[in-house]
Amino acid sequence: MSKTYAPPADMAANAHVTEADYDKMYAASIADPTKFWGDHGKRIDWIKPYTRVKDVSYEFGNVSIKWFDDGTLNVAANCIDRHLAARGDQTAIIWEPDSPDDEALHISYRDLHKATSKMANVLKGLGVEKGDRVVIYMPMIPEAAYAMLACARIGAIHSIVFAGFSPDALSARVNGCGAKVVITADEAPRGGRNTPLKTNADKALAHCDDSVQALVVRRTGADVPWSDRDHDYNALAATASDDCPPAEVNAEDPLFILYTSGSTGQPKGVVHTTGGYLVYAAMTHQITFDYHDKDVYWCTADVGWVTGHSYIVYGPLANGATTLMFEGVPTYPDASRFWQICEKHKVAQFYTAPTAIRALMGQGDDFVKKADLSSLKLLGTVGEPINPEAWNWYNDVVGGGRCPIVDTWWQTETGGHLMTPLPGAHATKPGAAQKPFFGIEPVVLDPTDGSVVEGNGVEGVLCIRDSWPGQMRTVWGDHERFEQTYFSDFKGYYFTGDGCRRDADGDYWITGRVDDVINVSGHRMGTAEVESALVAHPKVAEAAVVGYPHDIKGQGIYCYVTLMSGDEPSEELRKELRTWVRTEIGPIASPDLIQWAPGLPKTRSGKIMRRILRKIAEDDYGALGDISTLADPSVVDDLIANRMNKG
Ligand code: 6R9
């Protein structure tokens, strides 16, 4: 039995969802989803109320997911306008800049309304219409949130590309979704250094149609190259009207596309629609974090990831919350920055990733202890499994043993939390995502035959039995890929790609990906993407990439590289390949270890046996299993002898 931590008494008594509520609400949500979501859909404002709630088929070949599909609404009106009467002067967004010496901004709901309307009018002026795509490639500045909400206001579809991605990754996404406009900034300050965002965007746009326009926000005021396709946001905003009526949008019209990695091929454009997504983001934000009026809530993610979409912008603002947006990094100017910000803005709910917790834990307790963290009520984690040591440090040192930890398991595809303990309802267990959210029915399947594994104390692959409003609807431009990826392996279920264990109490523990996706510092990476970047180098004949355990990042990127005959391994080439991958994808894909592999273990049909490569990278080659089906078993000995992470 693992140790559990009961909810604090005041939270157990006053939470939006108490222990008794949870059981009742959960049972109701599963018994009659149409009734349950029909009621909860009303937590947002509709222009034309829905009469239909759920229309879903998980049948392979015929997958179709619709929620509230005869209703109309506007997301920006829900996140801004409807709060103006009661909380126009309340801070909607606290913006904390990269440098603590610069001033933080407090943007009220009224300010947000003006700024978003202006940006919406500027976009209209560039010819952006309902249904058009707009790529956002921005630092963590308020204009990034304005841009998202401005698109939503006019019914355009945004696709945010993380500012750490390379020009190549950016152009692939701009072309992939056929964007009309790319919104970017001159530079992105982070950790005291300025990334030349505009220059990167220029490089990307060189590979896009001439008709694609760039809208450039001035962040640092640096001199940047300028061309015919560029528009100066600040100049246009100065004269744009701050009145822009919100467009009437159907519940099933796309709100955004977000590219994410899968086990095969290039990243796919996950499509989220308007009504169901907003209902789900708002409800999970309120209940998982037990958000109450006047709380200052902070999610440290970047808006380039789904966590930033649902839990910096859409969920909190739909709830009329005060949400904090931080431009910088946890270790600048030093490792106390997060905690200084919590103290400065009296943060009540703090939501971050295990990789950040591990990195800060490594810097020692003093950085935490010198801040007054008495405003904190709740802590959250997301992105990867959290190891008990990091959980305990977070709980004891950061939370002072007073703050429940919600370990939220979910995915870009799911729009919002699918499993998490609820802070006023459940005694938490370090490392467990624990309980399904309302409407979510987890199913554990046997990976070998797809049969349902019943009972407790079991393990298998994790599927979800039915739909929920926040679920992705399709892959942009490729519905077949959507069905193949999520509905073909285990018919009739949504396949998550994760493994899980259901313990003796019926609580869930996520054990990690069961496919060729690795999780580096909470960022999803398809091994196939890194491989294709490597083999694009003229000296690389073949490459295989796997994850291996990494103290800070959770998983590191381990590359086995076979060179073209005639090319010799060298330290220089190693460096060159690292830079190469960073340029092709971005710094987050930078290989940690590169092993020269004269040969890769392949079956006689030429399939690379990744299981073996994974074991070698994990330093677990006692457990290689059956290698008799290899075309040339001797390559394995060579790989073991030359393993990179000995120790
Ligand atoms: C929100 C987000 C999704 C993958 C997911 C899983 C891993 C996320 C987790 C977790 C264990 C948690 N993951 N949260 N694993 N415990 N609390 O991270 O989306 O970037 O799409 O990644 O991340 O493997 O399948 P995304």
TrEMBL record:
It catalyses: acetate + ATP + CoA = acetyl-CoA + AMP + diphosphate. It comes from the Bacteria. It is an enzyme of class 6 (ligase). Pfam families: ACAS_N, AMP-binding, AMP-binding_C. The keyword Translocase does not apply. Residues 529-607 form the AMP-binding enzyme C-terminal domain. Its EC number is 6.2.1.1. Gene3D superfamilies: 3.30.300.30, N-terminal domain of ligase-like. Keywords: Acetylation, ATP-binding, Ligase, Magnesium, Metal-binding, Nucleotide-binding. Its cofactor is Mg(2+). Catalyzes the conversion of acetate into acetyl-CoA (AcCoA), an essential intermediate at the junction of anabolic and catabolic pathways. AcsA undergoes a two-step reaction. In the first half reaction, AcsA combines acetate with ATP to form acetyl-adenylate (AcAMP) intermediate. In the second half reaction, it can then transfer the acetyl group from AcAMP to the sulfhydryl group of CoA, forming the product AcCoA. HAMAP family: Ac_CoA_synth. This is Acetyl-coenzyme A synthetase. It comes from Pseudosulfitobacter koreensis. The gene is acs.
